[in-house]
Amino acid sequence: MSGDFAEAGRGVIDLLGLLAYARLVAFFRLAGDAELAPTLASKGALADLAAAEHANYRRLHDRLAELDVQPESAMEPFSVPLDAWHARTEPQSWLESLVKAYVGDGIAGDFYGKIADLCDEQTQELVRDTLVESGRAEFVASQVRSAIAEDPALAGRLSLWARRLVGEALSQAQSVASRRPELAALLGSGVRSVASEADTHAADGTEDADVSEAQAADLATVSRIFADLTESHTARLEAMGLST
Amino acid sequence: MSGDFAEAGRGVIDLLGLLAYARLVAFFRLAGDAELAPTLASKGALADLAAAEHANYRRLHDRLAELDVQPESAMEPFSVPLDAWHARTEPQSWLESLVKAYVGDGIAGDFYGKIADLCDEQTQELVRDTLVESGRAEFVASQVRSAIAEDPALAGRLSLWARRLVGEALSQAQSVASRRPELAALLGSGVRSVASEADTHAADGTEDADVSEAQAADLATVSRIFADLTESHTARLEAMGLST
Predict the structure, then answer these.
(1) How many domains does chain A divide into?
(2) Domain, as residue range, for B177
(3) Which residues of B touch A17 (CB under 8 A)?
(4) Tell me: the pLDDT tens digits for B39-98?
(5) Going by C-beta distance under 8 Å and a sequence separation of 6 or more, which residues neighbour residue A83?
(6) Can you tell me the ipTM of this complex?
(7) CATH number, residue B92
(8) Cβ of A86 under 8 Å from any chain B Cβ?
């Protein structure tokens, strides 16, 4: 039991580090994508979204420091998979960047929320607070809807783009889970009632056969969690006039 | 007298629009330059500076709306000169971006402050509030100083860079003054005790000869104001270990 607790503790630090890095990168990406914004008003709106991400980053960063963890070391392990996610989903247009900000950050947020549910109350509250999509839904949905009204062919292209975003998110989430056994164990504990043998060995990270068995379990766990997120993902697509 | 007041009114809107656009662009540039940051901690610090610029932009934007001015129309006339300033001073390294954030925004801020001194009290207060270099000085100065300590040759190169920043700022400020006669008149009123003939004609913007005479006056006015800003500019350079 105390072993489980220690593992959850490392899992919480991992979750906060992952989230802090995710928010910092989302801040930079939103600010960068604003170059694509067609008007000064939409540039400003994207700057608002970016600033909201910065505030989230700052809170998570400060919480890590409060827990006597060097925030940058907690964030560092997640730079490779998150940078890869952004590199593979570079928006080529203003509308793609909007859909990414809403769909990509939306499903990632739901995913983080699921993990947070398994943490202590203070972590839950902090994570929930920093996942608030402050005004994003209305802004993005109305922009995308009116673009589709003008050019209906966009609906199909943007729906495809949304599917690609989810596919890449799933793939990076699996990569994170396989790199961070404590986080995977935390994840797994929400899906299974008892930790599997594979997870326990993965935490040691010694035997190759066990590690790949653990990775298969992580893949299954992550996929199962993503499947659970379908409902709100579909709602976001519908708000924009896109199909699943 | 009432004519002067109306002119000052348009000048104030111009100042707020200029500042709002300057802050929005500074936000985007700081966020973009963070790609150059060597560590996760310095990326985070630059994100903090960028977020502070966003908060300033938001306040100026909301003040324009409060004055029943469409904020984007007030900002729009300044996009060309400010975008030109950034295009001509694209930092090629992390240190150049730091010096730009400190020296460039510093002298621009002093300049805006000088204009604000000539406005109503509420505008003065708002402009002063949004010019606070929250923590920038310490952060930038310490980074630049320690880089120079490691590689003394940097001092000369960065001093040159700082001179170029000021030269480009002066040139863009003159361009702004020549495009916005009301703002130039406001500027001029701080330097001269009575408005010159040239300024009055420039506000009409009808006769070519008068316009170029007014531009010459603007050039002189702007240069004189820049000369007045030397003291704090020199202090910023010294804080970084650079020479004028």
Answers:
(1) 1
(2) 2-240
(3) none
(4) 999 999 889 989 999 999 999 999 999 999 999 999 999 999 999 999 999 999 999 999
(5) A25
(6) 0.77
(7) 1.20.1260.10
(8) no
